Amino acid sequence: MTALWQRTATEIAALVRSGEVTALEVADAHLERALAWNDHVNAFIHLEPEDIRTHAREIDRHIGLGHDPGPLAGVPVAIKDNICQMGAPTTCGSRMLETFTPPYDAHVVEQLRGAGALLFGKTNLDEFAMGSSTEHSAFGPSRNPYGLSRTPGGSSGGSAAAVAAGLVPLALGSDTGGSIRQPAAYCGIVGLKPTYGMVSRFGLVAFASSLDQIGPLARNVEDAELLLRVIAGHDARDATSSVRGATAVNKEPDTRMRDLRIGIPTEYFGEGLAAEVRAAVGAAQAILVNRGAKCEEVSLPLTKQGIPVYYVVAPSEASSNLARYDGVRYGLRGDAKDVRGMFEETRGDGFGAEVKRRILLGTFALSSGYYDAYYGQAQKVRAALRLELDKVFESVDVLLTPTTPSVAFKLGDKLDDPLAMYLNDVYAVTANLTGVTAISLPCGRSSDGLPIGLQLMAPRFEEARLLQVARAYEAASKQGHNWPTDPTGGDVA
Amino acid sequence: MAIDESEVRRIAALSRVRIADDECAALARDLDRVVEHIDLLREVQLPDDAESLTYFDVDVHRKDRAIGGLDREDALRNAPETDGTYFLVPKIVDRDEG
Description:
heterodimer; B: mainly alpha; 0% strand
């Protein structure tokens, strides 16, 4: 019999709703696994078994009274620790917020509660989601379940490791420049960045507000879609939340596979792409062609500017957003006689090296004498990139690319070289800069057994099409989830 | 070299971040490399009438009206120092600056 922790979210919800299994049994099965694995992967930075069991009993009581708890009935969902859950610590992986407990729920957490989900702990991340490896977490790095000396990716690395290893079937991440898709690729799972405006950012601790978007991580496309449907929709507390979100995710796909036009952007297959990744993505493309899709080469010359634009826009917004950490209302306070000294001590002590780098970089790009050359120019190139991409989407339905240039790198490999770490996001940032939706799907493994990710991108609010192509690929590739070898010496699936 | 140690100190002061002496050289080195990379942007030829983006496709405008916020107890709960009614901070007005 398949163990409960191996079940998909869709299966668990059906089992719990039908009364075949209780939410408490689901909780205990996942807790047993999470507690055994977490010492090895450091996916969770807060995991409170008794709180989880209490919540599971509430769900069971609700069912006992004849209520339908909702589409995620009893499904454990891990939450990235930059998303506020009332009463649970929300540290953003930072010493600055080590003691912070939010007095409210993020919109997505309200939606999860309403759908009957079992809130299952807070996952590790790079400090304030700034990084691609979780090595910038103040609470130590997470580790890749497929190779414990390697990164699970970042910044949503804890969420990705937890889903890949079967500690939870679903997790929430946030994606500002690839932070859902890159860890999904490195951990062999599905990660989706919704269209900007589809999911409310209310209660997501802000990093770069014009880029940030919350999205699902799951072991298959169906589960990712299930979670997306729960969290998508308009919320007046986020001024950029769109009314198109809920309808977009529920509409029927508009394209038949045999009419599908796939664009292959040449810029994503140039220098720096590992041979094994190139081969795996090529094989994925062949599978879709075999299903009747037509591929054509397209060109997006401005995507070469993606990293420079991103590393002006994101740090600039971060330098403004993180001004709130001043030692007054929440978080750490540094010791000083005067208020300016208090600000400087608080921020000097509370922020780690990467966050300081980004705040300084953003302050530089926005400072007098540099603003037009950096921030102003970056915004113009960003606008031009968006026009360029929209134009390409007039002739193709989706784009197919690698998610990352290589498989998961070793912990420590890029830590002393910020620019090398930044360049890892080269295929990811275009979706954030232009607001489009994108998904990473597992598409095979390297000779070292490390997962490889395929990225599909679709126009804004075309999640239905994106998911349709993703499902078609998943079905045709016939890859089930590849369970990692158990480092605890326990059961191996 | 766009960013040297004195530039790091200038932007750190603007950012209100204390930088230790031993952090300064590494920050200058790292930021200089990053700025050298983002300088690629300055070479991009854009049409004269290129517009920057007005963010984003906001399709719902809420009324400019106050809505309920946190109650006082919740708002103060995470603060490092309060008197139960207000946040407390070190004295703000510096005597030398009047």
